[in-house]
């Protein structure tokens, strides 16, 4: 009986040297990444730290993207691209966020779940309620009639 090695599925790409001002669409444009999930790694201040994880449903698309993005230069800096397995991604996230206070996990999750739709306000007066904040925001900013939700994490 022949023994075969288990196939290692690499369906994610870790990009390094990503500009802090990059948007998910900018990262997708580096290669054939339409429909891919883009997660920017953040520091404890919730600012992007220059790394992004791009996840694909198909390993072949991840390989093609890594080859294309690995040759790209953005803002005068060459990007680094490395194929990763799900286990590699788990370990990377675990070590990257090890020093982040656990109180910020919910904030990081909210920012990741709804990018560019979540605003984190810090150092608000202690007695500020969600209703008071919503009233103040509606009065102070023209929100174009779009509904928004104020919640406390």
The total strand number stands at: 6
Low-confidence stretches: none
Supply the CATH class of one domain.
Answer: Alpha Beta
| CATH domain fold name of one domain | Alpha-Beta Plaits
> What distance separates the N and C termini?
57 Å
**Helix-strand pattern, N to C?**
EHEEHEEEHHH
Radius of gyration: 19 Å
The H-level CATH homologous superfamily of one domain, spelled out, is: RRM (RNA recognition motif) domain
Shape estimate: elongated
Main β-sheet: number of strands, strand sense, barrel status? 4 strands, antiparallel
Question: If strands are numbered along the chain, what order do they take across the biggest sheet?
Answer: 2-3-1-6
What is the mean pLDDT?
80
Helical residues, percent = 25-40%
The chain-level structural class is alpha+beta
CATH architecture of one domain: 2-Layer Sandwich
């Amino acid at each position: 009986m022949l023994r075969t090695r288990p196939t290692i599925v690499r369906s994610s790409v870790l990009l390094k040297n990503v500009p802090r001002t990059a948007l998910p669409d900018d990262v997708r444009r580096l290669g054939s990444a339409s429909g891919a999930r883009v997660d920017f790694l953040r520091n404890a201040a919730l600012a992007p730290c220059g790394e992004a994880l791009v996840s694909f449903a198909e390993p072949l698309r991840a390989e093609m993207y890594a080859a294309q993005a690995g040759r790209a230069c953005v803002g005068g800096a060459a990007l680094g691209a490395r194929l990763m397995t799900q286990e590699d991604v788990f370990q990377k996230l675990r070590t990257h966020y090890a020093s982040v206070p656990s109180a910020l996990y919910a904030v990081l999750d909210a920012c990741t779940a709804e990018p560019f739709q979540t605003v984190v306000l810090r150092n608000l007066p202690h007695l500020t309620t969600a209703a008071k904040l919503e009233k103040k925001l509606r009065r102070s900013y023209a929100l174009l009639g779009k509904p928004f939700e104020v919640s406390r994490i």
